C-alpha cells in the first residue's frame, strides 16, 4: 500500500493543496493559487525587498544623508541638556536661540533615550538599523504565522510581505521610525489576540512614537471583551507619564508646549496634495486643525460602534478585520509620506489571509492592487502622487475599499461560543 505524502512535504513538492484545507473553502469554484505561483511571488518579493533593505542600510554609511535620524539626534541632545527642542517653546522657557522646531510629541524624547544616549552618532545609527531589522523580522514571523494554515508556500509569502515595502528603503535611508512603529502595532495586535491587553497597551504607547501610524489602532481596544479597554487606559497613562517626565525635565509648562509648540505649527503640511489626507483636507476647505479634529471624532465614532456591536458575546468584527480597517482609516485620515505606508501592512496581510481562506478572486485582486501601492518603486510612486491627481485619489480610496471588502467578504455570524 502506498504511503500518504506528509502535508508539509506535499507543499514543498508543489503538489495540490491538502484535502482538509480545500474542504474548508465553501465554494470550490473559487481561485486557489497553485503553490508554485505562490513560491514565485514570494521569491520576487523577497528579491525586491532585500534590495530595498540592503540599499537603505548601506547608503547612510556611504552618503551620510540620513538627515531625519541626525535631526532626531540633535533634538535629543538638546533634550538631554534640559532644553525642549523647539525654538519658541525653548525661548518661552528661558532658552533663546534654539533653531530646532521638532514636530515630535514630548513623550517621544523619553522613548528615544535608549537609542540616542550612546556617545557619538555612529552607534546611534547602528542601533536604529538593528532595531529596524528586528522589527522587520518580527513582522515576518507574524505574517508567516498568519498564513501557515495554507501551507509552506503561503507561510513564506506571509513572511516576505513586510520585507518588500518600498518605504523600507526610504525609512532606513533617512532614519524614520515607521518600521519600528508598525512592528509595535503588530505586537499590540498579537498581544490582544493572546488576551494580554495590558501589555498591548504598553506596546501601543511605544508605537505612538509615530502618531500618524499608531493612533488609529487605539480602536482595537474596543474589540472583544470590555476588559481590553484597560489596555488603552494603560497606554494613555504611559504616554501621559512620559510626557510629564519630559516637560518636567526641560522645565516646560503644558501651556507653553500647546501655545508655542503645537498651535504654532498650524499643521500646514497636512494640506499638501501629496498624501491621502491632503486630498480631502484641500478639497473640503477645512483647516488642518479642523481636519485633524474631524478624523479623531470619526475614530471615536468607530470605536463606539465597535464597542456596541461587540457587546456581550457578540463578535461582529475580528481583530484582523478591525486592524485592517484601522490601517485604512489612519492612511486616509492622517498626514503621512511614503515611508509611512508600512502602516498598511496589517490590512495587506488580512487581505491575503482572507483570500487564501475564502478563495474569492476579488480579495486576491485587491491584495495585488494594494501590493502595487505598497511595493512600487519609491520614485515612481512619489512622482505619481506629486503630479497626478487621479493617482492620488485612487491611492486614497483603495485602502478604504479594500477594508470594506474585507469586512464584507469575511463576515460570519457571531460565534455562539
Using brief descriptors, characterize the structure shown.
single chain; mainly alpha; globular; disordered N terminus; disordered C terminus
What topology does this entry show?
Layout: H1 7-12, H2 19-23, H3 35-63, H4 67-80, H5 87-92, H6 106-111, H7 113-116, H8 121-147, H9 152-160, H10 167-174, H11 178-193, H12 197-207, H13 211-214, H14 229-250, H15 254-265, H16 276-284, H17 288-309, H18 319-333, H19 345-358, H20 361-375, H21 378-387, H22 389-410
Overview of this protein structure:
The structure is a single chain. The protein has 22 helices and no strands. Mean pLDDT is 83; it is low at 1-28 and 413-417. The chain has 417 residues and is an all-alpha fold. It has one domain (33-410).
What is the residue-mean pLDDT, rounded to a whole number?
A: 83
List how many beta strands DSSP finds: 0
Query: Which shape, going by the Cα principal axes?
Result: globular
Question: Terminal Cα separation, in Å?
Answer: 42 Å
Helix content: 55-70%
The major β-sheet equals: none
Total count of domains: 1
Using the CA coordinates, give the radius of gyration. 22 Å
- The helix/strand series, from N terminus to C terminus, equals HHHHHHHHHHHHHHHHHHHHHH
Q: So how many helices?
A: 22
Helix- and strand-based class? Answer: mainly alpha
Amino acid at each position: 500500500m502506498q504511503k500518504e505524502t506528509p502535508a508539509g512535504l506535499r507543499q514543498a513538492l508543489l503538489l495540490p493543496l491538502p484535502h482538509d484545507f480545500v474542504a474548508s473553502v465553501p465554494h470550490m469554484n473559487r481561485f486557489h493559487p497553485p503553490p508554485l505561483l505562490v513560491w514565485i511571488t514570494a521569491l520576487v518579493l523577497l528579491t525586491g525587498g532585500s534590495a530595498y533593505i540592503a540599499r537603505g542600510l548601506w547608503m547612510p554609511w556611504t552618503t551620510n544623508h540620513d538627515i531625519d535620524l541626525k535631526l532626531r539626534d540633535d533634538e535629543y541632545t538638546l533634550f538631554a541638556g534640559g532644553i525642549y527642542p523647539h525654538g519658541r517653546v525653548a525661548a518661552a522657557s528661558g532658552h533663546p536661540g534654539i533653531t530646532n522646531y521638532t514636530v515630535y510629541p514630548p513623550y517621544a524624547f523619553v522613548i528615544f533615550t535608549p537609542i540616542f544616549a550612546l556617545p557619538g552618532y555612529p552607534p546611534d545609527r547602528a542601533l536604529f538599523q538593528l532595531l529596524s531589522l528586528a522589527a522587520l523580522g518580527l513582522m515576518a514571523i507574524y505574517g508567516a504565522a498568519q498564513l501557515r494554515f495554507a501551507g509552506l508556500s503561503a507561510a513564506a509569502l506571509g513572511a516576505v510581505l513586510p520585507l518588500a515595502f518600498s518605504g523600507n528603503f526610504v525609512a532606513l535611508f533617512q532614519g524614520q521610525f515607521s518600521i519600528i512603529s508598525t512592528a509595535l502595532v503588530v505586537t499590540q495586535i498579537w498581544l490582544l489576540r493572546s488576551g494580554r491587553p495590558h501589555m498591548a497597551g504598553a506596546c501601543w504607547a511605544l508605537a505612538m512614537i509615530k502618531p500618524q501610524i499608531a493612533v488609529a489602532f487605539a480602536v482595537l481596544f474596543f474589540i472583544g471583551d470590555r476588559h481590553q479597554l484597560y489596555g488603552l487606559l494603560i497606554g494613555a497613562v504611559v504616554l501621559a507619564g512620559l510626557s510629564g517626565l519630559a516637560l518636567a525635565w526641560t522645565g516646560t509648562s503644558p501651556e507653553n508646549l500647546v501655545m508655542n509648540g503645537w498651535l504654532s505649527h498650524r499643521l500646514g503640511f497636512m494640506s499638501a496634495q501629496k498624501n491621502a489626507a491632503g486630498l480631502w483636507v484641500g478639497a473640503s476647505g477645512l483647516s488642518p486643525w479642523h481636519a485633524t479634529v474631524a478624523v479623531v471624532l470619526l475614530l471615536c465614532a468607530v470605536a463606539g460602534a465597535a464597542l456596541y456591536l461587540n457587546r456581550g458575546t457578540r463578535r461582529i468584527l475580528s481583530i484582523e478585520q478591525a486592524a485592517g480597517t484601522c490601517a485604512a482609516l489612519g492612511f486616509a485620515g492622517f498626514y503621512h509620506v511614503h515611508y509611512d505606508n508600512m502602516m498598511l501592512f496589517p490590512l495587506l496581510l488580512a487581505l491575503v489571509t482572507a483570500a487564501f481562506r475564502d478563495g474569492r478572486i476579488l480579495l486576491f485582486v485587491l491584495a495585488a492592487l494594494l501590493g502595487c501601492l505598497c511595493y512600487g518603486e519609491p520614485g515612481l510612486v512619489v512622482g505619481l502622487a506629486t503630479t497626478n491627481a487621479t493617482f492620488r485619489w485612487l491611492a486614497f480610496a483603495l485602502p478604504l475599499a479594500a477594508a470594506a471588502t474585507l469586512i464584507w467578504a469575511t463576515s460570519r455570524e457571531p460565534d455562539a461560543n
